[in-house]
Design goal:
By secondary structure, the chain is an alpha+beta fold. It folds into 2 domains: about 5-65; about 70-255, Beta Polymerase, domain 2 (2-Layer Sandwich). It is built from 11 helices and 11 strands. It has helices spanning about 5-10, 20-25, 30-45, 60-65, 75-80, 90-95, 155-160, 170-180, 185-195, 200-210, 220-225; strands at about 15-20, 45-50, 55, 85, 105-110, 120, 125-130, 140-145, 145-150, 235, 250-255. The strands form 4 sheets. The chain has a 4-stranded mixed sheet with strand order 4-5-7-6. A 3-stranded antiparallel sheet has the order 1-3-2. Strand 2 and strand 3 (about 55) form a beta hairpin. Helix 6 runs antiparallel to helix 7 (about 155-160), helix 7 (about 155-160) runs antiparallel to helix 8 and helix 7 (about 155-160) packs across helix 10 (about 200-210). About 30% of the residues are buried.
Length: about 260
């Protein structure tokens, strides 16, 4: 089988990506011939050499923009890397209907070690490394190309808040957090509290959910926080600034005015 034939087969089963090892095992050409054939298909823009040893197939319906939705290839990419991942942050929020501030940039949470961002053609992916891998709150979703993983609504919100300084700040994400709050269930929240390592982020999350008047039983978070000492934190972390006096039960020093960027 030639490379083009195998790629046609992949498209017939709604698979839009492949690794070099995978196609080598399925074709009967030499390594040199295979690489030459793949190079020609790249030149014709039928495939993209997305990352060393990993290719994306661009079918006719996506050929005009030369871009594939991330859910069509992210699972196979990380299978080829033998790494854990989940779509998170603004990318996950989109699947819950929170699409404010969306750009072509995608955000993926990964385990250590660090992975360099990918910027190629119209593809732009930032990988953020988790300090502790979740034991819960990762959801399996289905796309045309199979399943893929994303963070649950509450983990998406917590990740956004925890990494706010990298992602444009609280006010940039406030409208998204409001929409995510409508998707958070008690089960989702309870699961997060069993393992999430950053208590200061939980304080900020609770404060924001309180301000947004989310329809969530926040007493669950308050009881969790009371189970051990917790201390004042800044709503928006700043270098060389410490939390001062607080007047709310979450012990959050509101050092910025909450105001959506939209």
């Amino acid at each position: 089988m030639r490379a083009r034939e195998y790629i046609k087969h992949l498209l017939s089963i709604e698979s839009y990506s492949f690794s070099l090892a995978e196609i080598s095992n399925q074709t009967d050409t030499t390594d040199t011939s295979l690489k030459f054939e793949l190079a020609r298909l790249v030149e014709k823009r039928e495939i993209i050499n997305f990352r060393k040893g990993f290719y994306l197939i661009i079918p006719p319906r996506y050929s005009k923009q030369g871009f594939l939705p991330i859910q069509l290839y992210i699972q196979k990419l990380f299978q080829s890397l033998n790494r854990n991942y989940y779509l998170g942050f603004y990318s996950a929020a989109r699947f819950y209907g929170a699409s404010h501030q969306q750009t072509h940039r995608e955000y993926v949470m990964i385990e250590k070690p660090k992975l360099n961002e990918i910027k190629k053609n119209d593809f732009d992916i930032e990988f953020i490394t988790a300090s502790q891998w979740p034991v819960k709150n990762i959801i399996e979703k289905k796309s045309d190309a199979g399943y893929f993983y994303i963070s649950s609504p509450v983990l998406t919100a917590a990740d956004l808040i925890h990494h706010q300084t990298k992602l444009g700040g609280i006010n940039r994400m406030l409208a998204i957090l409001e929409e995510l709050s409508e998707e958070i269930t008690n089960e989702d929240l309870n699961d997060l509290l069993t393992w999430y390592p950053h208590r200061s982020t939980i304080q900020r999350l609770a404060f924001i959910l309180d301000e947004l008047q989310a329809d969530i039983d926040l007493s669950v978070i308050f009881n969790y926080l009371k189970s051990a000492p917790y201390f004042p934190v800044l709503l928006s972390p700043k270098k060389n600034q410490k939390a001062g006096s607080v007047d709310n039960r979450w012990k959050v020093d509101v050092n910025i005015k909450l105001e959506s960027d939209l």
